[in-house]
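[Automated response] Your request has been received and processed.

Submitted sequence:
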Amino acid sequence: MDRLDAGGLSWHIYAPGPTDPGQLNGYGWAICPTFAECLDGPDAGNVFASDQVVSDGQSGSLPSLSIVIPTAANSQHNGFSMLQGDNWIESVVNGVMQGPDWSSSAIFITYDDCGCFYGEVPPPSGPRDPRPDVIVSPYPKPSFTDRKVASYASMLAFTEHVFALQPLATADANADDYLGAFDFSQTPLPPVKLTKHAVPAASRAWIKAHPPPTDDPT
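Generated structure:
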């Protein structure tokens, strides 16, 4: 964030707030509130509610870099419905695709290190980092699977290379930057209208009768 500021580039973190249930008084999964300047300093003005990214995408008010984090209820760690999380992702992606910033956007959809329902390939070592991502943009190569080893640092590397920023450490300096998955000379891909899907009543009833264990490590 400091490098973006120094480069005259804007950034927002869209994250759960202190009143969102299950968010540890606003910390949740957002890194920025770990630092005092993001709570009480000038950077606090760059932190917004999770759902505001949808209206900002529709109005063309997105910054150079957005980090978007769901609330507990809209995540896929919500304890009751993966589909609820899918629907929230749909709302965010649609907000960007249907807005005026789409032509210059790259959306990376990623998850934490547990693997969970989306990652069936064993990681090389340790927790699931590297792990799969989904890239949504006008410029990824169509029907292409990039099989290079990526990590969380790859999103830093992509940001640094796109905006000509210096790396933070050796991890992002040496990480794959995803650029091999893009073709910026191709005809830009049009947006695709995504749709929400209601959680079936039978599923809601089953989930209500079978709450997740309180000691579930995932």
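Summary generated for your ticket: The mean pLDDT is 84. The longest strand covers residues 11-15.
If you did not submit this request, please reply to this message.
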